[in-house]
Amino acid sequence: MNGAEGFPSRLCAEHRAIEALLRQLDRITTRRGTDDEALRLLDALRRLLEPHLAAEEDHLYPLARRALPNGEALADAAVHTHTAIRRLLDRADDGRLTPTERRHAMSVLVVVVRSHLRGEEEQLFPALRVGGAPEDLRRCERRMREARAPRAGGPVWGLPPGAGAIAALRDGVSGHRTSGDRHSP
């Protein structure tokens, strides 16, 4: 990355992978897909979102708080939305839901996640590109990359941006599981 123009490439790649899963969830909610399909996709979405949200909270939002005049408010609002997303994921994944209730919960989740991604890409990222020091932006990007470096027994985050997300999407759609999953048949 050269200066601010490429920032935050990793997060944008992850946003594209998350959006691909959201489109799959949309199809299930509109065509009344099976509950097993819904649970597989929710699991794949959770596997993408959890490290993504954590990276934003650990690296991106502290940068926003320091670099932007309204960074404190932006970061607080984003963290609040992350909490809502986690609750919505749990709600949609609740085994006590009927298929109709699950589809409704998934629809709400999709709207909230899309709105959050759009807000970051249209407001936060451009503001950081303009207001953040290039070295701070490079450091943030590097720290997010290092936070996802391969660990023994953990996900392989050292792949090119989005590669792990693409594998998670593929696995979620195909039903293939690479880790312990309570939804496997």
Structure, explained:
With 185 residues, the protein is mainly alpha-helical. Helix content is 74%, strand content 0%. α1 (9-31) runs parallel beside α6 (163-174), α2 runs antiparallel to α5 (134-147) and α2 runs antiparallel to α6. The longest helix is centred in the N-terminal third of the chain and has 33 residues, at 35-67. The chain is elongated.
Summarize the structure.
The chain is an all-alpha fold.
Protein traits:
185 residues; 6 helices; 74% helix; mainly alpha
Structural topology:
Blueprint: H1 9-31, H2 35-67, H3 71-92, H4 99-131, H5 134-147, H6 163-174
Helix pairs in contact: 1-2, 1-4, 1-6, 2-3, 2-4, 2-5, 2-6, 3-4
Structural class of the helices, strands and pairings? mainly alpha
Mean pLDDT over the residues: 82
DSSP strand tally: 0
Q: Unreliable stretches, pLDDT < 50, 5 or more residues?
A: 152-162, 177-185
Strand and helix order = HHHHHH
Question: What general outline do the C-alpha atoms trace?
Answer: elongated
Radius of gyration: 17 Å
Secondary structure tally, helices: 6
Strand content: under 5%
Give the end-to-end Cα distance, rounded to a whole number of Å.
43 Å
Q: What can be said about the biggest beta sheet?
A: none
Helix content: over 70%
